[in-house]
Amino acid sequence: MIDFWRFILSVFAVLGGQWGDEGKGKVVDFLSEKADIVARFSGGNNAGHTVINDKGEFKLHLVPSGIFWPNIKVVIGNGTVVDPDGLLQEIDALTEAGIDLRGRLVVSDRAHIVMPYHRALDVLSEKAKGDNAIGTTGKGIGPAYTDKVARIGIRLGDLFQKELLASRLKEVLKYHNAIIENVYGSEPVSFEDILEKCKLWADRLTEYIGSVEHIVFDAITENKNVLIEGAQGALLDLDHGTYPYVTSSHPTIGGACTGLGILHDQIDVVLGVFKAYSTRVGSGPFVTELHGGVGDEIRNLANEFGTTTGRPRRVGWFDSVAARYSARVNGYTSLLLTRLDVLDGFDSIKVCTYYELDGKKVTDFPGNASLLERCKPVYEDVPGWDLPTAGATNISQLPKEALRYIKMIEELVGKPIDIISTGPHRTETIVVRDIVRF
Ligand code: IMP
Predict the structure, then answer these.
(1) Ligand 1 centre and the CA of 437: distance in Å?
(2) Are 317 and 279 in contact (CB under 8 A)?
(3) DSSP conformation letters of 211-241
(4) For the purposes of burial, counting CB atoms within 10 Å of the CB of 395, is it exposed (0-12), middle (13-18) or buried (19 or more)?
(5) pTM for the full model?
(6) pLDDT at 50
(7) Is 168 exposed, middle or buried, given 0-12, 13-18 or 19+ CB atoms closer than 10 A?
(8) Mean pLDDT per 10-residue run, the chain (438 residues)?
């Protein structure tokens, strides 16, 4: 195998290329070995990573997947929103599994808190939307980011400004409770209960809250290796995704800069992670979606159910129109293909090469969800393969039909696939080209 860790490189971003759930958790766990810092920059506990390694199987929502390598510091940046109860649950579960987080986990004091009223508002507003619901995770992410933009959010650092916190909380609750009661006809949230929770969070989280921006910036300046761990995917980006069926943050490369306080020219490698097919959770356009039949087969084979909500994921063929757009938005330097093994044993596989809309060929991903809803996929059939790719660790082990499929995706997206994941374990990985020069 190529000596993967041969060179020095400082900053490496791993971003979701589709609608999230591309298998970034495993990838980051694998790539983190030689990193000094692994950093999350956006989203909250709407994300869900499953990591399987020698310590067991873990479902992480907030804590970056690099936590399993003992010498690595993991940080959660200012661009994220943090539900302190969710974070504490993860800290407790990891501690119980024998993973020491003290001095290794730092959460930005500028990250906004997802409060219980955000979760209530998320669920109530989705219910009120009826058929037009976004299909959010119900974790309060949208309302927490809404407060941030409206400049009424409460940040983790505010937990330690006790008097100011109480007065701001009172103000913001007056506003939110008016909406909860008068617009949604639901029960108000208690100021006293939340203030009590804030005291507990301050006590328990104090050792984990710090200035992440300084830690990351200093590490980069000192030529340390920083792995930036994306959550969600490019097509869920608030600006660049399939609005309004998006999340409320920026899982794209620009979000990495603002969400960690780093400079664009400090990022050396941008790795786009793509599944060998497509999935999406929640509502919104999905041109290559498969209804029943092969879609159900892939869902069951690959256990495509949400890590955070348990919802069945919608499944479809690989969409090269969307992938090319994602590559444009993120400027990938290379791609990483996951879950190739799921397609083992299929007679034939389809790849969407372009769309048709009102009889016209569409090669650019439309910026409008209602146009996208009307696009029809045009597929090219690719022969499947009989031999398993599952567990392969070298490109020479792949059947020629699988290699052809990989080459086709590279050509359609215009970027090289430098790493291939062939199973959930760290070792089930093929390094085609040693792009990670830690
Ligand atoms: P929210 O982020 O909970 O507001 O949900 C908005 C949309 O993003 C919904 O369609 C969710 O299903 C989707 N979403 C949010 N986080 C993830 C994720 O980690 N993976 C896949 N979809 C996600």
Answers:
(1) 32
(2) no
(3) -HHHHHHHHHHTT--EEEE--S-GGG-TTTS
(4) middle
(5) 0.95
(6) 78
(7) middle
(8) 49 96 89 92 92 82 91 96 97 92 96 98 97 95 98 98 96 97 97 97 98 96 94 98 98 98 94 98 97 95 89 97 98 96 96 98 97 98 95 96 97 96 92 69
Unique residue bearing structure tokens 């919802």: 311
Residue (of 63, 25, 43, 44) closest to 208 by Cα position: 63
Sign of the torsion angle spanned by Cα atoms 200, 206, 207, 208:
positive
pLDDT digits (tens, 9 = 90+) for 153-199: 999 999 999 999 999 999 999 999 999 999 999 999 999 999 999 99
Ligand 1 centroid to 3 CA: how many Å?
A: 37
Distance, in Å, from the CA atom of 41 to the CA atom of 249, rounded to the nearest integer, reads 10
For residue 244, is the peptide bond before it cis, meaning its omega torsion is within 30 degrees of 0? yes
Residues lining ligand 1, judged by CB closer than 6 Å? Answer: 19-21, 46-48, 134-137, 139, 141-142, 231-232, 236, 245, 247-248, 281-282
Show Cβ contacts of residue 266 under 8 Å, excluding neighbours closer than 6 positions: 10, 11, 220
